[in-house]
């Protein structure tokens, strides 16, 4: 017997359609990709990051810390790599060495790692960071997967409890063939499982 | 032949439209001749798509540079093997390749169901027709590989050097086979929804298709990692690029489905959930294709941007809406008929596993789309790179690894305390001993230690399951250990094949954790200069520059640097890395220079060398890295694939009847034992 769609179903679908319609043009309006690293190398992508040298400047960042800092900065070429990886593996890229030079100059100018990252962010925008800073809306990026999983987990546990409660009010009655495994894809069970199952059905202690 | 191919593409569109129309009409009116006509149209569509493909291959092999596609992706001096793989080197060819695989799969699905699932088949054929028409239409109207040049160049641009790699010749077909494979279960899901035959019948029809899709996606993903590792030269194998993430999300949904399908088969539960997973896997494959071809998201793999993004987004929304309507209007038909007896049972464990798998799929998709979401909300472009994905997915991945070990240890229906204690002792001990040994050896990093404890636990679980099963057979049938273990797997392919897949997963997780101990060095060496380094295992290595050489190969100029290597004073194979400048047949440079890495692989670690460039007439800049346990990624992938093959391999049908499932109904007086199947 065919089920008729309810008004609620209709509203749900209408909501989905409207959401889709609202999102689609936005997706299309995004700036297109600049292409793969080995196809185009936009030389204008580089922007100098410079700050005046601090008085009595002494480097506050060691070489290891500098490398770590550069791993957190995205090269402005289309390679999607961080500055450190790009400059040490691709000599054709003129942008990562230039960004590296800026980092070195800022270190020599007495700036800390945080100040250097801030300077790069000011010039290039947040895109220069390999991962979004954990503040403002970006926090959603980090927590939404866990919140969703938490909600999903809570719903799942609630569902399992409900199923269990419903099962406890029932009594084993008939062996139904309507929900049997389909022919040819019978799930296998070891003898041990079958024995445990039989014992459970007969109400004996397992084993 | 080329003209014939072009015409065939148009005819295949007409055939696809016919296939769709008469199949749906046949399904709606229950007229057998229409259904049959739709199925024959499937074969006709396949024929014309093959002709169109042969036409394009002919153009590629005969260097017909009057075609834009041929001129853009090949040159006269391109090796023949890459002329073949050039078919999927560009957008329009790769879409035609999608169509070719889909047409082949559709025809196989129709042939395989000549005598079964007859009520579903018109809708299955019609749905596959819709997808085929969409792809053929997109090719013809937005990305036609038969588009002509206004003038015929003397030579083509050549193939991107990074695609001139054996891995890249195999990786895309594998990925496409996996991705396209999701279309068949989707079509059956639509058929089941339309006809409201949502019992287990349609699952029987798609289980093997889902496994095939999963199998090829697994191989495709691992091959992609291998290609990235040996070809891109940045020293890693997974960068969370959108085009990697897209098949991964499909793979995760397929994996979740392959677990939850067992619950529906055994207990009749999760009907809604299984339909949702099948639909999600297909939608994600279309979304992935859209993301990587529309230019919406920056990707190193992005094909040149074109109008096809609009086609894909429209198709995606249309499918989503139609499927949602179908699912919502059939919710009552999908009510579960069986119930749960314990929160600690295999069924519950599978559901937790599904939660984590789908949770990871969501987090990967969320991270991939977050730049778009952020720009839409804040108007600011951001980058979501590996640090983000790792921080979110590493804990989830470890949770999944734990469940990989826990699931097989818990009994179906209800696990008693005794069962849990007996089953868990050995695997938990394995995990703790592994962790203890590693801590004693000096390992302190938190996530790797947790990962290795869990790997030990999972391997312990698998070993215990094989040991118990083999021992049982040896006792019951007086078989020797080899025969007993072979028959154990052979007679329970699905179960023990699954354990082999789990073993592959554990190997890959061990490799991921090992990569955290990577050590790398940037070195400038003149001829004869020596660099000394200690690897993560404490061995002393020396690298002595043998100098830089320059030479020409078939379609490229090569600059290479070679290092002679010793480990603890013993000579090892020479490492050599190259910079290649590819040229066309007129000796003109085609692409930017590419890098070929130098690699010395062992089971414990890879020595990885990248020639960064020359910084003086005789001074080469190289990056050297010790990458622990990378070998285990490739072999873990192979083990997963072998496990998948064992699960897929056809097994003689068992005639077990009854038993195994008990439907519980209120008010019944006495329990009736399920004896027929419990033998």
Number of strands of chain B: 10
Largest sheet of chain B: 5 strands, antiparallel
Structural class of chain B: alpha+beta
Strand order of the largest sheet of chain B: 2-3-4-5-6
Please count the helical segments of chain A: 7
Strand content of chain A: under 5%
Quick one: biggest sheet of chain A? Answer: none
In terms of per-residue confidence, which ranges of chain B show pLDDT below 50 for 5 or more consecutive residues? 300-304, 655-679
Rg of chain B, Cα atoms, Å: 27 Å
Q: Encode the helix/strand succession of chain A as letters.
A: HHHHHHEH
Poorly predicted spans of chain A: 1-5, 23-40, 174-188, 200-207
Q: Name the helicity range of chain A.
A: 40-55%
| Overall pLDDT score of chain B | 87
Give short descriptive properties of this protein:
heterodimer, A: mainly alpha, elongated, disordered C terminus, B: 679 residues, alpha+beta, 5-stranded antiparallel β-sheet
Write a structural description.
The complex is a heterodimer of chains A (207) and B (679). Chain A has 207 residues and is mostly helical. Chain A has 7 helices and 1 strand. Helix content of chain B is 60%, strand content 12%. Residues 300-304 and 655-679 of chain B have low confidence and may be disordered. At the A-B interface, α1, α3, α6, β1 and α7 of A face α9, α10, α12, α13 and α14 of B.
Describe how the helices and strands are arranged.
The complex is a heterodimer of chains A (207) and B (679).
Chain A: H1 7-28, H2 63-71, H3 83-89, H4 95-108, H5 113-124, H6 138-168, E1 171-174, H7 191-202
Helix pairs in contact in A: 3-4
Chain B: H1 2-29, H2 32-61, H3 68-73, H4 80-85, H5 91-112, H6 121-142, H7 166-181, H8 183-195, H9 201-232, H10 242-267, H11 271-294, H12 308-328, H13 346-378, H14 386-406, H15 417-440, H16 446-477, H17 481-491, H18 493-515, E1 519-526, E2 530-534, E3 540-553, E4 556-567, E5 570-582, E6 594-596, E7 598-601, E8 605-616, E9 619-628, H19 631-648, E10 663-665
Antiparallel strand pairs in B: 1-9, 2-3, 3-4, 4-5, 5-6, 7-8, 8-9
Helix pairs in contact in B: 1-2, 1-6, 2-5, 2-6, 5-6, 5-7, 6-8, 7-9, 8-9, 8-11, 9-10, 9-19, 10-11, 10-13, 11-12, 13-14, 14-16, 15-16, 16-17, 16-18, 17-18, 18-19
């Amino acid at each position: 017997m065919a089920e008729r769609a309810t008004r609620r179903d209709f509203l749900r679908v209408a909501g989905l359609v409207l959401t889709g319609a609202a999102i689609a043009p936005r997706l299309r309006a995004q700036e297109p990709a600049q292409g793969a690293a080995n196809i185009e190398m936009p030389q204008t992508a580089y922007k100098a990051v410079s700050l005046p040298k601090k008085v009595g400047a002494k480097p506050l960042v060691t070489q290891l810390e500098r490398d770590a800092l550069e791993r957190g900065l995205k090269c402005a070429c289309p390679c999607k790599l961080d500055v450190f990886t790009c400059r040490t593996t691709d000599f054709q890229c003129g942008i990562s060495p230039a960004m590296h030079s800026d980092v070195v100059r800022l270190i020599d100018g007495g700036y800390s790692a945080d100040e250097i990252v801030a300077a790069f962010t000011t010039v290039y925008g947040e895109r220069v960071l390999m991962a979004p800073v954990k503040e403002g809306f970006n926090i959603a990026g980090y927590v939404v997967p866990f919140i969703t999983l938490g909600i999903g987990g809570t719903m799942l546990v609630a569902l399992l409890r409900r199923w269990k409660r419903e099962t406890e009010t029932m009594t084993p009655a008939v062996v139904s063939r309507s929900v049997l495994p389909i022919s040819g894809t019978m799930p296998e069970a070891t003898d041990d499982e079958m024995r445990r199952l039989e014992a459970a059905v007969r109400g004996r202690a397992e084993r | 032949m080329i003209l014939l191919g072009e015409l065939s593409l148009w005819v295949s569109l007409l055939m696809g439209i016919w296939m769709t129309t008469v199949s749906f009409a046949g399904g709606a009116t229950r007229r057998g001749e229409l259904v049959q006509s739709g199925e024959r149209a499937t074969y006709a569509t396949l024929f014309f798509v093959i002709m169109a493909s042969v036409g394009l291959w002919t153009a590629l092999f005969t260097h017909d540079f009057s075609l834009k596609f041929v001129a853009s992706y090949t040159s006269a001096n391109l090796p023949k093997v890459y002329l073949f793989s050039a078919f999927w080197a560009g957008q329009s060819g790769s879409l035609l390749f999608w169509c070719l695989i889909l047409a082949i799969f559709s025809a196989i699905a129709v042939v395989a169901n000549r005598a079964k699932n007859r009520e579903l088949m018109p809708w299955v054929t019609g749905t596959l027709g819709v997808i085929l028409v969409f792809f053929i239409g997109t090719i013809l109207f937005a990305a036609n590989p038969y588009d002509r040049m206004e003038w015929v160049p003397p030579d083509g641009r050549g193939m991107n050097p990074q695609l001139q790699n054996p891995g890249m010749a195999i990786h895309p077909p594998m990925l496409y086979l996996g991705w396209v494979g999701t279309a068949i279960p989707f079509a059956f899901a639509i058929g089941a929804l339309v006809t409201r035959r949502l019992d287990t019948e349609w699952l029987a029809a798609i289980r093997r298709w889902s496994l095939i899709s999963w199998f090829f996606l697994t191989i495709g993903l691992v091959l992609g990692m291998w290609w990235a590792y040996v070809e891109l030269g940045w020293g890693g194998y997974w960068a969370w690029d959108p085009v990697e993430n897209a098949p991964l999300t499909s793979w995760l949904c397929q994996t979740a489905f392959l677990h939850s399908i067992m619950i529906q088969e055994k207990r009749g539960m999760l009907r809604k959930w299984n339909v949702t997973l099948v639909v999600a896997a297909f939608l994600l494959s279309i979304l992935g294709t859209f993301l990587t071809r529309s230019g919406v998201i920056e990707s190193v793999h992005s094909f040149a941007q074109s109008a096809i993004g609009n086609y894909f987004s429209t198709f995606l929304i249309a499918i989503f809406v139609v499927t949602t309507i179908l699912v919502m209007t059939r919710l009552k038909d999908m009510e579960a008929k069986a119930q749960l007896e314990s929160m600690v049972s295999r069924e519950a464990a599978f559901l937790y596993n599904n939660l984590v798998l789908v949770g990871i799929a969501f987090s990967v998709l969320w991270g991939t789309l977050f730049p778009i979401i952020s720009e839409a909300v804040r108007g600011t472009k951001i980058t979501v790179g590996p640090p983000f994905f790792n921080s979110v997915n590493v804990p989830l991945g470890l949770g999944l690894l734990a469940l990989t070990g826990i699931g097989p240890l818990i009994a179906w229906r209800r696990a008693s305390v005794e069962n849990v204690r007996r089953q868990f002792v050995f695997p938990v001990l394995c995990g703790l001993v592994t962790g203890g040994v590693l801590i004693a050896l000096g390992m302190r990093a938190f996530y790797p230690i947790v990962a290795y404890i869990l790997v030990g636990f999972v391997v312990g679980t698998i070993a215990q399951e094989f040991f118990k099963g083999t021992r049982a057979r040896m006792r019951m049938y007086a078989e020797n250990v080899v025969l007993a273990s072979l028959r154990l797997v052979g007679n329970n392919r699905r179960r023990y094949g699954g354990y082999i897949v789990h073993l592959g997963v554990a190997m890959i997780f061990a490799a991921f954790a090992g990569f955290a101990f990577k050590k790398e060095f940037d070195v400038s060496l003149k001829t004869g200069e020596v660099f000394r380094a200690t690897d993560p295992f404490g061995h002393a290595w020396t690298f002595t520059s043998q100098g830089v050489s320059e030479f020409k190969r078939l379609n490229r100029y090569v600059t290479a640097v070679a290092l002679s290597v010793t480990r603890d004073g013993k000579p090892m194979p020479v490492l050599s890395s190259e910079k290649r400048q590819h040229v066309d047949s007129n000796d003109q440079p085609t692409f930017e220079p590419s890098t070929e890495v130098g690699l010395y692989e062992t089971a414990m670690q890879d020595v990885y060398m990248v020639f960064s460039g020359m910084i003086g007439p005789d001074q080469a800049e190289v990056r050297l890295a010790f990458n622990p346990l990378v070998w285990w990624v490739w072999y873990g992938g192979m083990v997963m694939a072998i496990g998948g093959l064992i699960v897929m391999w056809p097994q003689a049908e068992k005639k077990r009847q009854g038993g195994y499932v008990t439907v519980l109904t209120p008010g019944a007086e006495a329990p009736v034992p399920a004896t027929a199947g419990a033998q």
